[in-house]
Amino acid sequence: MPVYRPILPIQREVLSEKYGVPDNEIPATRVAANKMLQEFEKQEVFEQAAVRVKSYHQQKSAPKPKPEWPLVPTKKPVAAPKPWVRNSPEKIKEYRAMKYRDYLLTPWWKKIKTAAIRRVDARCQVCNKRGMLHVHHRTYEDLGDEWDMDLTVLCEKCHDLYHASIPKPRK
Fold first, then answer.
1. How many helices (H) and strands (E) in the chain?
2. For the chain, first and last CA: distance in Å?
3. Where are the domains of the chain?
4. How far apart are the C-alpha atoms of 95 and 146, rounded to whole Å?
5. Percent helix / strand / coil, the chain, rounded to 5
6. Are 7 and 28 contacting, i.e. CB atoms less than 8 angstroms apart?
7. pLDDT tens, 80-91?
8. 163, exposed or middle or buried, with CB in 10 Å at 0-12, 13-18, 19+?
9. Per-residue pLDDT tens for 110-127?
10. Fold of the 89-165 domain
11. How far apart are CA 61 and CA 55, in angstroms?
């Protein structure tokens, strides 16, 4: 035969004070009191979840602040060359006749370098870090008429590692 234990004073206190159950509706046994407390706790959890969902939807539907217009760039933008815009044969000969250091100072190289960095979202193609980036020539055959596949964007550390891993050519 089951033993019915009387309700604990703490159960009676929680039911009456926290949940506002009148004294005549508080159960007499612990088991029944525990079931009632569990139902109230479930209801609380559902209400809290509903409040969180409601506040989430309010945040999503709230109007986003508009940026100040016009947006003023901090630096003068450099127009990247279009893939179909190529150098003339005369210009290519001129660039290839230059010293490499001088070629790196030409407006054409600056455009190509900027386009390569933008293409990879200003990140190193090896370690994916942002920061000081170098544009490395994979080959010098198309110097002055580079294609995207001729260039690799590397951070300073990866560029140094790359050059340290390749043996220097014999003179």
1. 6, 2
2. 102
3. 9-61, 89-165
4. 11
5. 50, 5, 45
6. yes
7. 555 556 778 888
8. exposed
9. 988 988 898 888 889 888
10. His-Me finger endonuclease fold (3.40.1800)
11. 10
